[in-house]
Design goal:
The protein has helices at residues 2-15, 42-46, 89-129, 134-141, 144-158, 161-169, 174-177, 188-215, 230-261, 266-280, 287-304, 308-327, 333-358, 376-384, 387-400, and strands at residues 23-25, 31-33. With 405 residues, it is mainly α.
């Protein structure tokens, strides 16, 4: 049979007639002729060396297509991703990626909150098993020095372990998200003063907001505890209030959270991380201030492409409160307010001057192009309507309600 085919092919070639390829009998008794090579579709070209019906293999192709019905050609299966109406392939992919990022961030934040609840439960359970009454156990942990030490240990654990575990499970490289390199030259000092100035502005705005609510009879008191006394107490407060939060909160919020969101636009990443940072403080007294500070810290990280200036601003702002508490604690309230007001005015002036000088001939207050196709409002909607983010927001708000008098 093969010899007859070869003879027929040679005769057609010599006579000038177009060469015919293999002809196969169909199940109806007629012949099926495969189309010329140039007329084949992409699917036919990919699977042109399929098995013949006698069971012989085509040695020239290892990916032979299987046919259920002899004599009937079946195109290879292909998989098409369904894209909902109103989306382009790129915006749909952005939506999927942002939803996945929201789950990763939301689970990390919920685990962070869970650690604080678990710690309190475990502490009183263990102290009870050791024979301590609830009142005695509460008195021990309420000691200012003990409270500061507990805060240091818990903060380090809460802002690192949950994020590292969840991010590793999702195959995310920490080093790719947290910018730990040196800040860009030329604007380091300016960015520091801009950040400190904005923190001063946030302090003023938060204070006036508090006065506004008090004028309507809304009393909101948050007990931050007492500070330990002496030089040791000052060093301990400096460590727990300034150094540790400046490092670990920036690592988590401006590093891991914002770093994961920056591919969807720097402006969006700064806003989303600032909102989450504000909510993390767990009370309405600090939330507005933390949100505003989160905006400027995120802006600094984006502009310097480094975490370290933001860490320095965060630590310096917190140190001011520690220093005023210990250095001016023995003075009258009037003098304390006067000195603090002078500091705020000086910080604002330096920040405005730094911004004016640095912005000349540059686009310091403009974010780079992200290449994202979806609208800013769409990204906010996709992220903040994720179930885990909604649960986190609700938990933080419920926690904040307990401080109303």
């Amino acid at each position: 049979m093969n010899e007859e085919k070869n003879t027929r092919f040679e005769e057609q070639t010599n006579s000038g007639a177009p060469a015919q390829e293999d002809t196969f009998p169909s199940c109806q008794g007629e012949s099926f002729k495969s189309p010329p090579k140039e007329e084949r579709t992409a699917g036919e070209t990919a699977d042109r060396n399929y098995n013949n019906f006698s069971g012989e293999e085509n040695s020239g192709n290892s990916n032979n297509a299987a046919y259920d019905n002899p004599g009937v050609y079946s195109a290879p299966k292909s998989y098409v991703t369904f894209i909902p109406y109103g989306y382009t392939p790129k915006t749909y992919e952005e939506r999927r990626g942002l939803k996945k990022s929201a789950v990763t961030i939301g689970i990390s934040l919920l685990l962070l909150l869970g650690i604080s609840i678990f710690w309190a439960t475990a502490y009183f359970f263990i102290m009870g098993r050791l024979g301590f009454t609830y009142e005695r156990a509460l008195a021990i942990v309420s000691d200012p020095a003990v409270m500061q030490l507990v805060q240091v240990v818990l903060s380090v654990f809460m802002f690192t372990v949950p994020f590292i575990i969840v991010y590793k499970i999702n195959s995310l490289r920490i080093s790719d998200l947290v910018p730990l390199g040196k800040p860009k030259k030329g604007n380091r000092l300016a960015m520091f003063f801009i950040g400190l100035s904005f923190c001063a502005f946030a302090n003023i705005a938060s204070s006036y907001a508090g006065y506004f609510f008090q004028s309507f009879g809304i009393d909101y008191n948050v007990d931050y505890g007492e500070n330990p006394g002496g030089i040791f107490g000052f060093l301990l407060a400096f460590l727990s209030t300034s150094v540790v939060p400046g490092l670990i909160e920036e690592f988590a919020c401006r590093g891991l959270i914002m770093g994961l969101l920056r591919k969807y636009g720097d402006g969006f990443a700064v806003l989303a991380s600032a909102i989450l940072f504000g909510l993390l403080h767990g009370n309405f007294d600090q939330m507005p201030f933390a949100f505003m500070v989160g905006l400027v810290l995120g802006f600094i990280v984006v502009q310097t492409n480094s975490l370290w200036i933001a860490v320095a601003v965060h630590a310096a702002n917190n140190f001011v409160s520690v220093a005023f508490t210990y250095l001016l604690g023995g003075l009258s309230a009037e003098i304390q307010n006067l000195v603090y007001s002078l500091y705020l005015m000086a910080a604002l002036t330096l920040g405005i001057a730094a911004a004016a000088v640095t912005s000349r001939g540059t686009e310091i207050f403009k974010f780079r192009e992200s290449g994202v196709e979806s609208a800013f409002s769409q990204r906010c909607k996709w992220f903040f309507t994720s179930p885990v983010i909604i649960i986190f927001i609700v938990v933080c708000i419920l926690e904040s309600l307990i401080y109303f008098a």
